[in-house]
Amino acid sequence: MMHALKNARSTTLTRLAALLVAVAGLGLAGCDDHAADPKMQIGANPVLPALQQYLMPPMRIAKVVGWGKR
């Protein structure tokens, strides 16, 4: 009985972790620095972004700052 309960709990945690990773991935996929007019992106000849040949795209990380005196 306890073994079945332990397996059910680990399955639930695994599913929850997978769901959280999927939601975070979708949130990051929606990030874009260069927002464009949606009308220019639809049609027979959409405006495409310039080609960039990167194995991994450059990432910008915010500077670390302190909390201040308070």
Structural class: mainly alpha
Question: Rounded to an integer, what's the Rg over CA atoms?
Answer: 22 Å
Question: Low-confidence parts, pLDDT < 50 over ≥5 residues?
Answer: none
Q: Quote the average pLDDT.
A: 76
* Main sheet characteristics: none
Give the ordered list of helices and strands.
Answer: H
Distance between the termini: 53 Å
From the spread of the alpha carbons, the general shape counts as: extended
What is the count of β-strands?
A: 0
| Residues in helix, % | 40-55%
Strand percentage, roughly?
Answer: under 5%
Number of helices: 1
Summary, kept brief:
By secondary structure, the protein is mainly alpha-helical. Helices cover 40% and strands 0% of the residues.
Describe the overall structure.
The mean pLDDT is about 75. The protein has one helix spanning about 1-30. The chain is mainly alpha-helical. It contains 1 helix and no strands.
